[in-house]
Specification:
Layout lengths: L2 E4 L3 E6 L2 E10 L2 E10 L8 H31 L1 H7 L13 H4 L3 E8 L5 E7 L2 E9 L6 E3 L1 H5 L3 E4 L3 E5 L4 E10 L2 E10 L8 H30 L2 H9 L9 E8 L5 E7 L4 E6 L6 E3 L1 H5 L6 E4 L3 E6 L2 E10 L2 E10 L7 H12 L4 H15 L1 H7 L16 H5 L1 E7 L5 E7 L2 E8 L6 E4 H5 L1
Parallel strand pairs: 4-5, 12-13, 20-21
Antiparallel strand pairs: 1-2, 2-3, 3-4, 5-6, 6-7, 7-8, 9-10, 10-11, 11-12, 13-14, 14-15, 15-16, 17-18, 18-19, 19-20, 21-22, 22-23, 23-24
Length: 452
Amino acid sequence: MEKLYDDVLGTLEFDKTVWWKSLNVSMYGSSENIELLIQDVAQEGILDIQRDAYLRYCQNVDLYEKSVPSYILDYYKFHFEEIDRKVELEDVFGKNQVTENELFRITSLWYVFICRDGSYGWILGCSWNKKDGFAVLLSESEPRIISSKQLRNLHKINDPTLGLFIHDGENSWKGLEQHHFFGELENLEIELEGSSEEGITPVQQKAYAEYTQKKEDLFEAFSKMMLTAYVGDSAQVDEMLASGQPIVVQTVLPKTLYIDKEGNYGWICYTAWNDSYMGVLLSEAQIQFMQPEQLRNYRNEEKVVDEVCGVLFKDATGWSKEVVVRLTEEICTMPVTIRTYGKPVSDKQRASYQKFIELNATRWEGIKDATLDYYMEGYDDFVEYLDLPDSLLRENVTRENVVPGLLDFTQLFIKTNGRIAWLCECPTTDDGLAFEFTNGEIQLISQSDIVS
């Protein structure tokens, strides 16, 4: 193994792409052996800019020790939902319970890494990514939490408009800023489509400037849409807002602002009702819900912008989109399927979708009544071949618990002739059920009656 002695860095050994040596450090109440890594992929030797970076790091290490934990805590809370899915966390590591001190039980410092351009940072191990850990870029004006891959292959831009962006090694530049959402100051990741060679384009700078100008109005409109989904009645929401009642719908939170190469932009939001994410397109005239990957690939998707239905994406039998609605007393993200077999959406289908938009909360009372009638009429048969929970036994079932206990809504379906219905799966029938409201009244039918 090749070795060298450097007047600044001491005795180093070479391993694949880095010069390295062991360091004994005392940090966060313990003494540990870590490694100093000096990047040299082409084995061209250590640069003066790397020596200067090491000296600068040594001069500021006490400051980093004090300041970095709050950034790690911020990063942990921002990515908590992803982390929580990967590892089984103790109660003390809950999003609102964890402290800086607790975090050092599930993280540890591995390396000090000095890049070829003189940038430097820490690489830390963690319980949620045992192979690669994560990194803290220390050489900028304030610490930035990034992936270890981003630090090892660092491509960065200090954009005069957008600030510091670091390439993810795939197809995006990523930055970070803070926005006020629901009265709280929250981190928002900025993700710009592009290769490391392309950088940030004027089109994206213009889109970001437009977003910045409109963001308060966009968030207000988005919040109103979410509140309407919860309440189910737009007129009631207008009355609530007119009275000065604040909007608080904190089961959905913007996490990322995505801007593609053509300047289309929108949020990717965490949705607590299904512990998942949804895309919210902001750059069209009306805010549109969609799947996160549809937002990220928006410029390449086969789609139409319909005057009534909004943005529709091409699928096997026609067009589809996502809506956020309240069904069975729970908010949910639900697909809308408009069957056209390659033809444009018809006026009849637009009228059906408009009817759906105009529905208010009282319509769901009709679903409760229809489901209870259906269930009680067939109860003697159901009890013979289904393992019914106690809540659905005859003496316990009610119009309030029969729908969530029995039905699993799957989509809103609009047929070629304009018939419209909610489709749902139900253990009482292999064919599924549907609630049609084409004629203004809720009618329970077999799913095959409308889908075939």
